[in-house]
């Protein structure tokens, strides 16, 4: 059992965020154990031809055979929606002694460290430069264009849902909805560790540092990131992650198709959960411009809402749109 102790004001500083760097690093687990992540298989098949042109030996070595990852590769986000480039800059500033210590902690014995890492640890600063370059190439080759827009939409929808739960039902419903192993009583959040390895720390004080809740597409249950020198983080499985492997739904209601036309009817069916223009274009394999024109018509007709987050606009169905789809 891990207990997170909340003093007065700690719940108010608890926040949500997601991390593109964390998702990129966690996606490397798929290279070790594809069967563990069935929703990512279509994406994994698409990227396999590209992996041989990357620093594959090093990328694979960032994940141990038991799927542990050095902590420095998953830094706590400084804000709710960081960009990959800014997170990579923070990673590049990791002290060399932390790189060395985290690899040894991940692999547990020097003999288990892969040769590509073992040789690199003779100069941890140079190894960090190579890791940063490898992750940057992996992101732009395999993730940024097609995978991340869909993944980001799922993470954004999760954050919107959790915010509504907290506002309407309170902290108890919020935490229990993240994982059934989590229970909340005033001032105390408990995570059962019955199905996992014992944690090195079982009594965690928030102590004004703020607990960050991170949805991820690569977890089966809540997972704490605990280090007495770093603020606490609790990762949890993102809601709706199965949608990563979905094909666009067919439009089967001919009346809806005759009313709106097939492209707009299909878009309306897709928008049961919020999505951006880019995500919808990828899912339908059409241009973003074509999608944008249809979205504008559906929005003007009162069938969609739109919300802006930075430079990204996300659309979702209104109650009227829901009724039409039913």
UniProtKB/TrEMBL annotation:
Report if keyword Transcription regulation is assigned: yes
SMART domains (UniProt xref): HTH_ARSR
Q: Which Gene3D superfamilies match?
A: Winged helix-like DNA-binding domain superfamily/Winged helix DNA-binding domain (1.10.10.10)
Residues annotated as domain HTH arsR-type: 244-326
Q: Which domain of life is it from?
A: Bacteria
Return the Pfam families for the record.
HTH_20 (PF12840)
Q: Which UniProt keywords apply?
A: DNA-binding, Transcription, Transcription regulation
Q: What protein is this chain from?
A: Helix-turn-helix transcriptional regulator
Query: Source species, please?
Result: Streptomyces actuosus
């Amino acid at each position: 059992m891990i207990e997170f102790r909340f003093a007065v004001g700690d719940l108010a500083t608890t926040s949500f965020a997601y991390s593109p760097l964390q998702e990129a690093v966690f996606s490397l687990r798929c290279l070790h154990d594809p069967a563990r992540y069935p929703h990512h298989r279509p994406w994994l098949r698409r990227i396999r031809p590209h992996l041989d042109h990357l620093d594959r030996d090093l990328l694979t070595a960032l994940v141990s055979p038991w799927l542990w990852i050095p902590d420095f590769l998953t830094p706590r986000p400084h804000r709710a929606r960081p960009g990959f480039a800014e997170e990579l800059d923070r990673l590049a500033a990791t002290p060399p002694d932390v790189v060395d210590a985290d690899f040894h902690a991940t692999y547990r014995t020097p003999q288990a460290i892969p040769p590509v890492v073992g040789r690199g640890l003779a100069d941890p600063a140079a190894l960090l430069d190579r890791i940063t370059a490898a992750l940057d190439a992996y992101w732009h080759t395999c993730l940024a264009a097609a995978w991340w827009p869909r993944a980001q939409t799922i993470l954004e929808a999760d954050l919107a849902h959790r915010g509504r739960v907290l506002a309407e039902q309170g902290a108890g419903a919020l935490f229990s909805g993240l994982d059934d192993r989590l229970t909340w009583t005033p001032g105390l959040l408990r995570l059962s560790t019955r199905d996992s390895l014992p944690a090195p720390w079982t009594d965690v004080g928030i102590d004004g540092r703020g607990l960050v809740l991170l949805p991820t597409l690569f977890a089966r249950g809540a997972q704490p990131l605990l280090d007495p020198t770093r603020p606490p983080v609790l990762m949890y499985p993102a809601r709706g992650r199965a949608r990563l492997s979905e094909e666009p739904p067919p439009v089967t209601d001919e009346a809806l198709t005759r009313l709106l036309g097939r492209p707009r009817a299909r878009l309306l069916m897709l928008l049961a959960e919020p999505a951006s223009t880019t995500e919808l274009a990828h899912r339908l394999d059409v241009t973003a411009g074509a999608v944008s024109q249809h979205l504008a018509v559906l929005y003007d007709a009162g069938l969609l809402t739109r919300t802006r987050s930075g430079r990204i606009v996300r659309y979702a169905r209104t109650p009227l749109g829901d009724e039409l789809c039913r």
